[in-house]
């Protein structure tokens, strides 16, 4: 009996009477049930897998972001280590240029001789008390000299050429009355010259 000859309204759809259903209806119900079970299994299984996949993709994105961050941090650390090493090298070079106690007196003479060799007339050469910082001390000297502009420039250039670190601070250059001077000069420079000494220098500690 074909499905087209079966009136569905005449079928007793009570599952307790499923045994009396026409063969075609039984096959149709079985196929539909299998399809629904299979579809349900695929849906729920796939849904779980899709959720796992979505979570995995989010985790992958987070890991990639974290990796990039760590890579940049590692690159920055390497760069900072290189910069720190360069700073240490420059610092060591500067420390080597700082005079030890035994050289201070000779450095003061070098500074004054540089001024005299430049043709300047000293009005003041006054070493001041040292200023202690973290790992070094400043040794300031107040200086007043008279000379022509070119001689003042020559003096500054000579100080920069000294083998030990000497820096120039708070300098003021002003014209002055030639009549009051002992030679033909027309400029006075008031300046603070500083040199530096390393604190805890082995030569200093040995005294």
pLDDT averaged residue by residue? 76
Distance between the termini: 124 Å
The secondary-structure element order is HHEEEHEEH
CATH topology tier name of the largest domain: Alpha-Beta Plaits
Shape: rod-shaped
DSSP helix fraction: 40-55%
Beta content comes to 15-25%
Please give the domain count: 2
Task: Enumerate the spans where pLDDT stays under 50 for 5 or more consecutive residues.
Answer: 202-207
Structural class: alpha+beta
Q: How many strands? A: 5
Biggest β-sheet description: 5 strands, antiparallel
Structure description:
- Helices cover 52% and strands 21% of the residues.
- It has helices at residues 23-96, 101-117, 149-160, 202-205; strands at 121-127, 131-132, 136-147, 166-175, 187-198.
- The chain has 207 residues and is of the alpha+beta class.
- Strands 1, 2, 3, 4 and 5 form a five-stranded antiparallel sheet that branches.
- It folds into two domains: 1-96; 101-205, Alpha-Beta Plaits, CATH 3.30.70.
- It is rod-shaped.
Break the fold down into its secondary structure elements and pairings.
Blueprint: H1 23-96, H2 101-117, E1 121-127, E2 131-132, E3 136-147, H3 149-160, E4 166-175, E5 187-198, H4 202-205
Tell me briefly what this model is.
This protein has about 210 residues and is α+β, with helices and mostly antiparallel strands. Helices cover about 50% and strands about 20% of the residues.
Structural key phrases:
rod-shaped; single chain; 2 domains; 207 residues; disordered C terminus; 4 helices; Alpha-Beta Plaits; alpha+beta; 5 strands
